[in-house]
Amino acid sequence: MKIEIKKSIKPIDYNFALSELEKRLSNVINSKSNELIWILEHNEIYTAGTSSKNEEILNKDIKVINTNRGGKITYHGPGQLMFYFVIDLNRRKKDIRKFISIIENTIIETLSEYEINVFADKENVGIWFNQNSEITKVAAIGVRVSKWIAYHGFSLNINCDLKNYNNIIPCGISDRGVTNLVRIKDINYKGIEEKLIKNFITNLEILSA
User: Fold this and answer.
1) Residue of 21, 81, 125, 171 marked active site
2) Which element (helix H / strand E) includes 196?
3) From CA 202, how far away is CA 206, in angstroms rounded?
4) What is the pLDDT of residues 94-147, one digit of tens each?
5) pLDDT tens, 6-46?
6) Which candidate, 14, 55, 175, 176, has a CA 20 to 30 Å from the CA of 88?
7) Are 145 and 97 in contact (CB under 8 A)?
């Protein structure tokens, strides 16, 4: 099967996106649909993964949606690129760690094309930027696997409003902050989704070898 590429121009409701991913998951399991990569943005929302804790919500007035992805609590909103996927590992190597590494390398390699050096951290999931010993997160990763089909994906902060992270302990990590690409390097990131898609598909071939 080929991987279907979808790009949504208008912001997509989080619950609708989740429902669509679940439908695609079921169809891929039953060989009724192709795998999927879906690029979109959400309106402002906070979501809590399966390992999140209530004390990580600093502002109790915000609405938080519980989700079945891995990880803790995070923020989604305008200026943040969502890279969702439904990828069948039955057709590749059934190696979750290597799949996560593929996601990390995709982001790292893509940002290196903009001469931005970021890194993955075994202790703290995500992609990080180090500037003068201040380490901040620029991309969050949250994946769920059902019957060896991986879905959900990652978010990449491009020019999102970072003040929204003050309401939570992002991803449960209190001693590191959050940043975005414009703060790191104020340039035009138009077309970055194409680079991410290309690098992700290329890196997936590692699991097919």
Assistant:
1) 171
2) helix 192-208
3) 8
4) 999 999 999 999 999 999 999 999 999 988 889 999 988 899 999 999 899 999
5) 999 999 999 999 999 999 999 999 999 999 999 999 999 99
6) 14
7) no
Chain-centre distance for alpha carbon 98: 16
Helix (H) or strand (E) holding 74: strand 73-76
CB 58 within 8 Å of CB 25: no
Max Cα separation, the chain? 50
Listed in order, strand segments (DSSP E) in 103-162 are: 119-120, 127-131, 134-146, 149-157
**How far apart are alpha carbons 68 and 135 in whole angstroms?**
28
> Phi and psi of 101, rounded to 5°?
-60, -35
Residues 1 and 3: their CA atoms lie apart, in Å, by 7
User: What distance, in Å, lies between the first and last C-alpha atoms of the chain?
Assistant: 16
Name the token pair of 97. Answer: 């760690």
Instruction: Assess contact for 21 and 69: CB atoms under 8 A.
Output: no
CB 144 within 8 A of CB 87: no
Residue 171 among the catalytic residues: yes
Do 52 and 157 contact (CB within 8 A), yes or no? no
The structure tokens listed for 135 are 């380490």
Q: Can you give the pLDDT at residue 59?
A: 92
Structure-model confidence comparison of residues 176 and 92, the more confident one: 92
What pTM, to 2 d.p., does this model score? 0.94
Q: Give the residue among 159, 1, 3, 193 at the shortest CA–CA distance from 78.
A: 159
